[in-house]
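Budget justification, computational time. The allocation requested in the original proposal was used primarily to generate structure tokens for proteins on the priority list. As evidence of use, we reproduce two of the resulting records. The first is shown immediately below.
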Amino acid sequence: MLKLTLALLALLAVPATAQPLTPAETAAIDRIVTTALASDQVPSASIAIVRDGQIVLTKAYGTANTGLPATPALPYQVASNSKQFTAMALLLLEDEGKLSLDDPVAKHLPGISGGDRITLRQLLNHTSGIQDFWPQDYSFEAMSRPTTPQGIVDIWAKKPLDFAPGDQWQYSNTGYVVAGMIAEKVSGQPLVTYLTRRIFKPLGMTSVRDQDDTNTPAFPAGYGRYALGPVRQVTPPARGWLYGAGELSMTAEDLAKWDIARINRSLIPADDWAVQETTVKLNDGSDPGYGLGVGIRTVAGRKVVRHTGEAVGFLSSNSVWPAERAAVVVLTNTWSSGAYTRIARDIAAVVLPPPPAAPQDAIAAAQAARARTVFDQLRAGALDRALLTANANYYFTPQAIADFHSSLAPLGEPTAFEPAGKPVLRGGFAIQGYTVKYPGRTLDLSTFYEPGASGRIEQFLVNPGE
């Protein structure tokens, strides 16, 4: 009863008015979005802006699907921005006395590797050691066939753990599939049904639905490019692949309603919000800056609760500044451009002072040399497939190689080929980005490697840079 009373009081703790965007701010936001879409050939974007705890702008730009203009009423696939809802479902079920986040996974779902040692909390903060089933930024061959949560678990969650629970932080979609299955088993309802009853309906989030149901011409379609080739509509995955890890579609406005609930500590008991935003401490005491389905950072002295999402042909960004009572939601229907994060960053600069630039560090010379070799081969239109894994060879179809060649060859020789940041572990691969510079333009290269100095390349994606 105390939690319920606090939640109801929080519902009343909203400002009467919000400072609206000025005409100059609105014009600046329009320039930010339209410039980014044009420069990267992004088909569309849908945005929502929260100021003083209220939505002050929702707007859509571009084309959502063939013959379908983008509008703020269209739900976009938000992918991993769904994770915060799956995590909150388990927090609410804990409030109902149906589970504890410190329960071992095996108590609720037997047969998971390490299930007697992994807690539900570790599933949600990505420290379980369960291997990620989808670390790639493209759809691999198995995703062309329907699956089920159990099908994903049987392949990936029964492998040996990548590390002892709590030893490392490694993003794991598989962990969230397990979490979703447990939420359904404990609640006795499908995950989306439970979330609709406890969260979406009370907040008026009427657009939310399963992303598998939005892969039709009536909804935004996903798009992509091979390197700098033409924008093409991508083939969506077969049903069942995202589930509790990223199964939701919604409008930017509805995601902003959830952000406002976070800012106001409304609907959900305040201590649940706090637990979700408490970062995990690894066994060695280090802090990866991640809570339960959300990332938490302090930037320019301000706490930011943020997550991004990637589905096949879609990218999303959701950032909340609780103390400043502000939020920025950006949804796009391409997965071949970093425009969604640039749009979010630059819109935030209209509302808040800009954050400092992130540092960059070097990586192993052998990996950089291998990446440069493959890049030069693609510029020439020839590819040594022995340098690639089976999944990467599946990705590099004759059309893909042709698009890489036709779009990269005219650029000539790069003036610089530099690592961007430090390598990180995910899904059994080392992930490393590169910045490729030419006179007047920059490209971003995303690579995944098998472990070891001579590991084959699992992912090799080129996108426009800043």
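The second record produced under the same allocation is shown here.
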Amino acid sequence: MKIIQIVTLIALSALSTHALEVTSFEPDRSVVYKTIGDLELKLHIFNPAEHKQSDKCPAIVFFFGGGWNAGSPGQFYPHCKYLASRGMVAMSAEYRVKSRNKTTPRECVEDGKSAVRWIRQHAKKLGADPKRIAAAGGSAGGHVAAATGMTKGFEEKGADLSVSSQPNGLVLFNPVFDNGPSGYGHSRVKEYWEAFSPLHNINKTAPPTVVFLGTKDQLIPVKTAKEYKRLMEEKGRRCDLHLYEGQSHGFFNYKKEENYTKTVIEMDRFLTSLGYLKGEPTLQSKPSHVDAHSSVR
């Protein structure tokens, strides 16, 4: 069983590195949000039409998947392009990963928190609202986003802690919730998993959250997502869970058009409910013979 799991993880890491790369979308600009030695980490920004620095638009930052090992910001360029068309400043972040930077999962979260803090610090220059910043991501990037919302610590040395690194909302696509002994990646984070695992750090300040998960996900069990939702609601926090029957890990990506469209529409509705967007989604889902999407209330 362990061999099968290892092979699956390697395959999914390769999938995130290559198959999820989207090259047909170009950001409006890129800015450096963090420098570590000679390494510059960038935010790739998509702005609304006729966007001005004096605007105060809601913002969102996406973190790519890839098992904390690999991946590319391009994975979420289509999501950014869509949300920019709806009036958000939408960004996809670079962050350190093992294959390129020889780092651990800890640095992934440190960079995620740095990105949220930088956006809040520079909201005026971005034409963004510092009180309406969402974090989003898929798989391990979903973990990074969730960890910015749930965990304490894991801040970069020297960070200005007077500026919060916690986002105001979370959009999570088959996220890594559980890093406990039976959860994902435990062997890599076992020295600090109790502080690192979003499932084990839900509190009364947790941001409102939407989760998208396939029922046949090889890495994230449905029962884990349901437990996450239960614990969120136990703390009086909102957690919308959307399940997609028969879908596997990474089902939501742009190259899987039907699932991409369905999840983006639900993402839009969630953000509209928070007051980040207005009106109806501008994407339309193609009718199918079977509606395999369900929401857990």
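A brief technical remark on that second record: The first strand starts at residue 29 and ends at 36.
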